Amino acid sequence: MEMLKVQNLSVNYGYITALTNASIEVDKGEIITLIGSNGAGKTTMLMSISNLVQKNQGQIFFKEKNISKVPSHKIVKNGLCHVPEGRKIFPALTVYENLWLGTIGNQNIKKKDVQELVEKQYDLFPRLKERRNQGGGSLSGGEQQMLAIARGLMMDPDLIMLDEPSLGLAPIVVEEIFELILKIRDTGKTVLLIEQNAAMALSIADRGYVLQNGRIALQGKGIELLHNEDVKRLYLGADD
Length: 240
Ligand SMILES: Nc1ncnc2c1ncn2[C@@H]1O[C@H](COP(=O)(O)OP(=O)(O)OP(=O)(O)O)[C@@H](O)[C@H]1O
Hints:
Elements: E1 2-13, E2 16-27, E3 31-35, H1 42-49, E4 57-62, E5 65-66, H2 72-77, E6 80-83, H3 95-101, H4 111-124, H5 126-130, H6 141-153, E7 159-163, H7 171-186, E8 190-195, H8 198-204, E9 207-212, E10 215-221, H9 222-226, H10 229-235
Parallel strand pairs: 3-8, 3-9, 6-7, 7-8
Antiparallel strand pairs: 1-2, 1-4, 4-5, 9-10
Bound molecules: adenosine-5'-triphosphate.
């Protein structure tokens, strides 16, 4: 089943063109990655899907409904969650409070369901359970990233969009985050992952898209892109 379809999307910031005629599709249960260099337009793609930036052209369909003009807060309630780059957790609140806040504003989630959702996140992220009463600001970078993802999952979304979850983390922690992404998919979620860490992202993704200067330059199975000569040269470093 088709979960998300982005059709011919173009976005400008004034005179700067961020995306040109970009189309992607995400099916239910897939991990899809969008890779590309700095400024290729990856973040803009997610912001456009969440309707946080104005589109010049293009349509977004989520679970076959046209959400191009639906306000951001309603898109989330429909089951599409966006975990932005940079974690943005509440440092002065505890891990538990940060998670609890993830459900705020969603009337679909009843008070009695909140604890169940928290427990689900603790199962997925045991480290957050251990640190549930600790201030968010006292967590390590990797743990803060886990908290940001877990907070997104508190909305119980069908599709979770992750913007550079590996940014600034040590390689061993990056591996942990990618393993978690696989586990998240195993719980029945669909994942759209934006990454500069192309090698890792392609190794866990079912399919991938390569963005170059706002255009989709290449697409294919994760494993195929991983072995593609152009991708290797441009995004995986000469030694790969
Ligand atoms: N608010 C803005 N105003 C003006 N230009 C912007 C704005 N946001 C992004 N841009 C520009 O749009 C282009 C695409 O940016 P975007 O952040 O989508 O790229 P990205 O692939 O996510 O890059 P990065 O990996 O560095 O986050 C870039 O040229 C960027 O400078």
